[in-house]
Amino acid sequence: MSDLFSPFIKTEKQNELYKLAEKLALRVKERAKETDEQAAFSKENLRDLKETDYVTLTLPKKYGGKEISIYELLLVQEKLAEGDGSAALSMGWHLGVVKELAEDDLWDESVFDRFAKEVSEEKKIVNRIASEPATGSPSRGGIPETRAVRDGDNYIINGHKNFATMAGVLDYYIVTAYVEDQEEIGSFLIPAITPGVNVKHTWDTLGMRGTASDDLLLEDVRVHQDQLVEMKQQSKKPKGWLLHIPACYLGIAIAARNEAIEFAKSYQPNSLNTPISEVPHIQQKIGEMDFELLRARQFMYAVAEKWDQFPEKQMELGPELSAVKVAATNAASKVVDLAMRIVGGRGLSKHFNFERYYRDVRAGLHNPPMEDAVIQMLARKAIDAK
Ligand SMILES: Cc1cc2nc3c(=O)[nH]c(=O)nc-3n(C[C@H](O)[C@H](O)[C@H](O)COP(=O)(O)OP(=O)(O)OC[C@H]3O[C@@H](n4cnc5c(N)ncnc54)[C@H](O)[C@@H]3O)c2cc1C
User: Fold this and answer.
1) How do 172-179 and 126-129 pair as beta strands?
2) pLDDT-derived band of residue 1, with 50, 70 and 90 as boundaries?
3) DSSP H helical segments within the chain, as ranges?
4) CATH no., domain 127-234
5) In the structure, what pLDDT confidence band is assigned to residue 138 with cuts at 50, 70 and 90?
6) Which of 5, 208, 298, 318 could form a disulfide with 238 if both were Cys (CB 3.0 to 4.6 A apart)?
């Protein structure tokens, strides 16, 4: 067990969850280079995540899940990301959405019941598909160009989504659209096999390539009105489950940190009588990495604990949740940068993992919430406070 990790495991259940994530992290790590090269979501990873029941961790116990808390979600997701950030971010969407749906009563009970049983018995996976080329990040509040037009008991949906993580392997998409007859944004639960739904392989990015966040095209997709599962105004609560994002990027940073220290302890150039780990500027960088990680992780786990332990305070936690994301993703970028500096020019080589970590952490900037919006929100709150 990593010395940085141990303080955060507090119960036997958490220890068991951690061991599961540790086992899976080793497996996904073996495939990380390949999925990065292919910009594809690994089918082998998905098989492992299903066979070990990782995909049902956030389901309520009554459906056979482990009903894990947000704190526990971060423990496992951070560990999984040590193996492969892409696998972790992708699973984080699925696990987080399932948790949100189970706890927030966003859907009609019978629809959620049917869906939860499919997750439990058939290990089906889901993601929210909200981003669009013309609307940008949904966190900005733009109205989707994807349109749902009423036709009797059905809706006909047309639109173009991008950044659809795991699009090619998902069983369900939760797609946002402007619902014309309601004059409001709604979300439709759409099975991947629905006619008119197509994945276009566009994902060719610098980082997080293994998330296979391709485009989703919806062409005259006919769905029953019952598949309109959410309307926008229903969900005002801050989203604690989005903490899976900082956990993921910190996991990538921990992997870079561990491998850099391992390298520093084993590399002894012939200009030195000791490994480079004994050189002051290397120690300075190692210290700075751990300082960044300690600070960001303490902050993240403290906010998660607050979320879990004080449900009555969840409505007020938006600013803290958002601040954790900004603090953690910036810390992760800094840690990976320091790890690269420790390793030197070798870090640029595809024979090491560092260059992938370096590319992957960069994507954290573009997951919600966006930094400028968070800083602006904190400023507004401070100025408006009495
Ligand atoms: C690895 C990865 C996985 C993802 N997975 C998913 C997923 O599964 N589902 C999903 O729906 N999305 C997903 N996303 C998409 C993500 O949530 C964002 O929608 C996407 O990254 C685009 O955000 P953006 O800020 O670059 O785009 P835009 O919103 O288009 O912003 C572009 C630029 O304009 C600025 N800007 C735009 N609007 C405003 C505004 N109103 N005020 C001030 N500045 C503004 C931004 O700051 C930025 O500089 C994923 C993204 C990544 C990187």
Assistant:
1) parallel
2) very low
3) 12-38, 43-51, 70-83, 85-104, 109-122, 244-266, 280-309, 318-343, 354-362, 371-384
4) 2.40.110.10
5) confident
6) 318
In single-letter form, the type of residue at position 285 comes to K
In degrees to the nearest 10, what's the CA dihedral of 323, 365, 259, 27? 100
Spacing, Cα 128 to ligand 1 middle (Å):
14
The reported pLDDT for the residue numbered 236 is 77
Name which CATH class applies to 240-384: mainly alpha
User: How far is ligand 1, taken at its centre, from the CA of residue 131, in Å?
Assistant: 7
343 lines ligand 1 (CB under 6 A): no
Where residue 136 falls among pLDDT bands split at 50, 70, 90? confident
Tens-digit pLDDT profile for residues 18-47: 999 999 999 999 999 999 999 999 999 999
Give, using CA atoms, the residue closest to atom 30 of ligand 1.
136
Question: Is 163 near ligand 1, meaning CB less than 6 Å away?
Answer: yes
Over residues 250-289, the pLDDT tens digits come to 999 999 999 999 999 999 999 999 999 999 999 999 999 9
Residue type, 164: A
Nearest CA to ligand 1 atom 13: 163
**Which is the closest atom of ligand 1 to the Cα of 137?**
19
Gap from CA of 366 to ligand 1 centroid (Å)? 6
Of all protein residues, the one whose alpha carbon is nearest to atom 20 of ligand 1 is 137
Q: Where are the domains of the chain?
A: 6-124, 127-234, 240-384
Q: Does domain 6-124 have CATH number 3.40.50.1860?
A: no
Ligand 1, residue 176: give the atom nearest the CA: 11
Cα–Cα distance measured from residue 132 to residue 347, given in angstroms and rounded to the nearest whole number? 35
